[in-house]
Amino acid sequence: MRPAHPTEQAVGMDHYVSDADGVGGHLREEDEHFRVRELERFSTQPVDAPTDAYPHLVFRVTLSGWDTNDFASRLSNALEMSRERVNWAGTKDKYAVTTQLFSVYGADPGDLPDVDGAEIEVLGRAGRNLEFGDLAGNAFELVVSEPDRPDNASEITDELHEFGGLDSPNAAGVSVGVPNFFGQQRFGSRRPVTHKVGLEIARGSWEGAVMAYLGNPTDEEPESTQEARAFVQETRDWQEALERFPNRLRYERSMLHGVVDCDGEPGPEDFRAALERVPSNLQRLFVHAAQSYAFNLMLSERLERGLPFDEPVEGDVVCFADTDAPEGLELPDTDRLQRVDERRVRSVTRHCERGRAFVTAPLVGTETELADGEQGEIERAVLDDLGLAPEDFDLPGEFHSTGTRRAMLVRTDLEVETDPLTLSFALPKGSYATVVLREYLKVDPVDLG
């Protein structure tokens, strides 16, 4: 193992598992260099199916230069209907070429608009709208621009193949494995603070959570923004801070308005109300990022101790594979858990070797049951260091979380082309392409996009 980039260490990714020097370079020099195609499991009926039974029109869209949410808004405006009637299974980035499914309630194929940067293919009709559960995973084709050491990709691939505990390479590509870390995007690529906000929320410090979001200036931001953050951090002068924060920082300004508008000196409930002024999905993200940070720390500590990721040790909790996954995709089903005692280690190891089971770590919440044995020691030590316990997530509204568990290892068949250096692979939903790419490039996370 070798130490990770300091920015990655700040969000719990302490090491690379490959020792070879990275290829260097960067991603996303052009949108076409970052291609993502959804792997879905959603059946449709013919377009001429009766609309009373199948009212949802389903179509596949290839987008260039479009964020999923922005395209959905453009679509609903063109169709003159509520945004709530447009649904999709997974959110995709603007700076990429992405292919994904959409469904629209009460539309006909002829109603769909021509949109620059969007190619629409009508697939049929369905009796319900698309949901997050319909997304099984994503297939990626990623070009590395200006690599310094492209020939190192082969050595890195060999090391990741060994880490994944897999059989010999196959004709289609090489099977590789990496720790299933949450990538930098989970915490903020240029200003990784969402987990800091979530940790304060879970600790019951509503003022601390507001300050974690308003303060914490970074060098990546404009000087005026850094100054505004430093000012509110040092003075707690909410009214003057509101004057200093740029209008483009609308969530920060919304929080500040919440504090300024309270009667008298703000108390815990006022700070909580200020946090609740941001969109509900961001409120959830704060807590999810705190859980993700703890998860990353647990994986880093397991690496430090030299415990395997591809097979269990006594005390581990494993989940089993989703039998409905698309061909070639290992998809963990975290609703099917089993604690591994001494009697089960050998049998569960065989399941892991065949891709039928996966060792897990917790995304801690109110219903989390921690592992036993050495992994249980790791989980309890990380939570103790963070000042957290499962019951701390018994929070109001969008901040509440019951928790779940997540596979520690993500494996995929990977193909490498050399001119230009291109990596192609597929991952289950919730896993990050940049967590695979970081092992290859070993650069500042900013260059991973």
UniProtKB/TrEMBL annotation:
InterPro entries, alphabetized: PsdUridine_synth_cat_dom_sf, PsdUridine_synth_TruD, PsdUridine_synth_TruD_CS, PsdUridine_synth_TruD_insert, TruD_catalytic
SUPFAM superfamilies documented for this protein: Pseudouridine synthase
EC number of the protein: 5.4.99.27
Domain TRUD: 177-410
Catalytic reaction list: uridine(13) in tRNA = pseudouridine(13) in tRNA
GO molecular function annotation: RNA binding; tRNA pseudouridine(13) synthase activity
Keywords: Isomerase, tRNA processing
Pfam families: TruD
Catalytic machinery residues: 93
Enzyme class: isomerase
Superkingdom of origin: Archaea
Gene Ontology BP annotations: tRNA pseudouridine synthesis
Family: Belongs to the pseudouridine synthase TruD family.
Cross-referenced PANTHER family: PSEUDOURIDYLATE SYNTHASE PUS7L, TRNA PSEUDOURIDINE SYNTHASE D
Function in brief: Could be responsible for synthesis of pseudouridine from uracil-13 in transfer RNAs.
Protein name: Probable tRNA pseudouridine synthase D
